[in-house]
Amino acid sequence: MTVPSGRRERKKAATRQKIADTALRLFLERGYDAVGIRDVAAEADVAVTTLFSHFASKEALVFEQGDDFEQRLTQAVTGRAPHEPLIPALRREIHGLVRHCTADSAAPIWSMIEESPALREYEESMRLRHAETLATAIAADPGLSPTTTACRTIARFAIDAYSLARGADDPEAAVDEIFRMIEAAWEVSCPSVRGADA
Q1: Cα distance between residue 73 and residue 79, in whole Å
Q2: Model pLDDT, residue 32
Q3: pTM recorded for the entire structure
Q4: Separation of CA 147 from chain center
């Protein structure tokens, strides 16, 4: 999570984190469907309006790090060194994200998500949003010249790599395998960068 600078921002971030932590604890203890927004607000000792000022929906409480995920992927594109190839930068970031989400502590959360149609649907919509944001970042890179379709396709592949690897027996190997295919697709769609992303 990005560290806020000012006192007010730190207080808001702390309140947001408290709400998210409380919600997750209640969801895991009682079951996602058995816990309502009012339950979370009461347990976190905040007003329902305060909860909604931080989270747009009940589903968003489970995916509270979704914005950080999106920022990290965008930063992998915009923050890489001037001559660093795109695909290895994305692969490195996806590796980090997969390591984080396949930690033992994350297993109960993913089980809960898999068991809830509402959470699965929310995750899918979030992945589509992340892919569009990533595609925009790729398209805006002055050192690249892919078509809009190529940008959107590579972005979707990268987001899907995260999801597919997360469920693989060997997530690290799965990321590498998937990114070999992504790299091949990138070289076909952007011949001008062929070999640069090796």
Answers
A1: 10
A2: 95
A3: 0.82
A4: 24
